[in-house]
Write a structure and sequence with these properties.
binds pyridoxal-5'-phosphate; single chain; 227 residues; 8-stranded parallel sheet; alpha/beta
Length: 227
């Protein structure tokens, strides 16, 4: 298995080439041994979508792994990941952002966050609309949060075979990102530089549309078995 994982990673790194784009290995449902194999192949960025699984794996695996939270995050669970999390991709409300700020303040640290934007046509996916996002960046309250650092945006395209639709959705996220970079002044709370978009079935399109963080699970580890 570890041979396959390291070859998969090599293939992805070849397709990233010299782009300014980082690979985050999404290891949900996969055993620690698979993560260790990817680590041994050189990866340091790993992501999970459930707090408990993330916390358990972080405890077992090497300390220099940068852990990413990519799934919907409940406010009452922020405290379990706050001490070690590298980047939370899935911030979808101001209440959640305030809770992350509060937990980071307790620890005397800063937590890096991305705001999740709703770009898909499915209404099951979480995230801000672009209007809500512009409102958020105009609110003074945002800039009073001293323990979060918003470094960019995250989005998920519709689960579809229609590659033009996927491209349009990624383009729309890129447009919002560029628009905000122009209008939002850099501050202690906000520096927009990361665009987290692209999963196994659409990361090639996402990279062409300017992704800086691709989140890949099955392309690295193989298909997941859900019970
Ligand atoms: C599971 C997951 C991924 C990776 O999915 P693959 O299709 O296996 O690459 C990426 N992002 C999020 C938010 C996920 O939940």
């Amino acid at each position: 298995m570890s041979q396959v994982i390291s070859e998969n990673i090599k293939g992805i790194q070849d397709s990233i080439g010299d782009r300014n784009c980082r690979l985050v290995a999404i290891s949900k449902t996969k055993p620690a041994s698979d993560i260790q194999a990817a680590y041994d192949a050189g990866l340091r960025d790993f992501g999970e979508n459930k707090v408990q699984e993330l916390a358990e794996k972080a405890e077992q695996l090497p300390q220099d792994i940068r852990w990413h939270m990519v799934g919907h995050l409940q406010r009452n669970k922020v405290k379990y990941i706050a001490p070690f999390i590298h980047l939370i991709h899935s911030v979808d409300s101001f209440k959640l952002l305030k809770e992350i700020n509060k937990q980071a303040e307790k620890l005397g640290s800063t937590i890096q966050c991305l705001l999740q934007v709703h770009i898909a046509t499915e209404d099951t996916k979480f995230g801000y609309s672009s209007e809500e996002l512009f409102d958020l960046f105009e609110s003074e309250e945002l800039y009073q949060l001293n323990y979060v650092h918003i470094t960019g945006l995250m989005g998920m395209a519709t689960f579809t075979e229609d590659r033009e639709q996927i491209r349009d959705e990624f383009k729309s996220l890129r447009d919002v990102f560029e628009e905000l970079k122009k209008s939002v002044p850099e501050s202690k709370t906000v520096t927009l530089q990361e665009l987290s978009m692209g999963m196994s079935n659409d990361y090639d399109i996402a990279m062409e549309e300017g992704s800086t963080l691709i989140r890949l699970g099955s392309t690295i580890f193989g298909a997941r078995n859900y019970q």
